[in-house]
Amino acid sequence: MPETTASLPMYDWPELRPATDAWWAGIARALRKEGLAGVPDRLTRGADLAALWGAPGLLVTQTCGYPLTHAWRGRLVPLVTPEYAADDCDGPMYRSLVVVRAEGDISGLGDLRGAVAAVNDRASQSGCAALRAVFAPVAGGGRFFSAVLETGSHLASMAAVGLGRAEVCAVDPVVWALAQRHRPELCAGLRPIARSPWSPGLPLATSAARPADEIARLRAGLCAAFADPGLEAVRAALLIRGTSRLSAADYEPIVELERTVCGARCPELA
User: Fold this and answer.
1) Who's near 267: CB < 8 A, 6+ residues apart?
2) pLDDT digit string (tens) for 16-42?
3) Which residues of the chain does CATH 3.40.190.150 include?
């Protein structure tokens, strides 16, 4: 039997790791109360997202809506979707911020034609698909940006814009809110100029290979952890204020947005 693994990679910054570890400890207790065996004491870190999501013994992870509906469709099952106490979050829904340097004469989307765009990952809903959705109406069906810089993270995309390596990026609103709290210097030189369409948020998920009864117990345990008053301070540190139970079907608007805004085959940014 493969070793059971758990990961919470989406906002696992060094300064948040004590809170993330405490949050997982609370989740693990709740899962064990549901009778789940092999719940790991510690989160798995240090692997890329594909390795975390595809781990043979995957129990719980956090993913993004775009991988869930595209490359990992049918391989990951959404369990619950956290609700965050951040601007541009509404229940389980969110919209990305389109960000440029604070100083400069960019006043609208059209001013960015021919610019360099930074994206965390081309398979990211909040950092790439959201950017396509915002700029598709002004792109006229052609190439809008001169180049795309893949940075590996939202924080790195923000830094690239602030340092002048790129002119624009799209940022997850939870990242923006956490950065304002923990890395204000990174936000100081940036300003939002637009927001993307609304999308369902980043779910906690498990492997689709797990039996249905285990998936039901995972959901029940997670819901108990999100409602546990003893974990309120930890959730607040991570900006978590609640949870919703969204199904795979609830994430189909991501696919539909791609089709309606960008066309049947979503074009590259550049």
Assistant:
1) 132, 136, 139, 141
2) 999 999 999 999 999 999 999 999 999
3) 5-85+200-256
